[in-house]
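Retry 2 of 3 after timeout on previous attempt. Resubmitting structure tokens to design endpoint.
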């Protein structure tokens, strides 16, 4: 009779994804990646007032290139967060707007933006303190 091989159990995950089935993990990661993308956050927040044309979006988001705006809009449309409505006019006109699903993301984004605004000064002070400590300083790693 052969000895039984020890059974190894996977560690129990206690992180934020532990509430969802394992097969949701990849999609959850992708959605968080999209929702956390700075350009997606700025596009969604720019659309909170209603429909905007492409050029108006481009002007409302400092630093975004046409290529990146187009890419971001396509991703958001694919996820069902925005709609793209072309109008048969000369010159052509296309408007973008949040879907109901996109509006629910806007709530989370607004909380994040407000948090960043409320803690701006403290974060800037921490950055300055860290930068002034010198690039050779070790970052303290908390121990348990």
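Retry 2 succeeded. Sequence:
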């Amino acid at each position: 009779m052969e000895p039984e091989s020890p059974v190894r159990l996977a560690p129990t995950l206690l992180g934020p994804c532990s509430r969802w089935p394992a097969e949701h993990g990849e999609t959850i990661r992708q959605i968080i990646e999209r929702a956390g993308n700075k350009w997606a956050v700025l596009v969604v927040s720019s659309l909170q007032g209603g429909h905007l044309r492409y050029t108006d979006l481009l002007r409302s988001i400092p630093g975004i290139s046409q290529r990146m705006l187009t890419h971001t809009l396509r991703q958001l449309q694919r996820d069902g967060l925005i709609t793209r409505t072309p109008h048969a006019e000369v010159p052509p006109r296309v408007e973008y707007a949040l879907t109901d699903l996109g509006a629910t993301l806007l709530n989370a984004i607004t909380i994040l933006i407000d948090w960043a605004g409320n803690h701006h000064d403290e974060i800037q002070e921490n950055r300055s303190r860290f930068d002034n400590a010198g690039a050779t300083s070790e970052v303290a790693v908390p121990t348990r």
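Attempt log closed. The longest helix spans residues 100-118.
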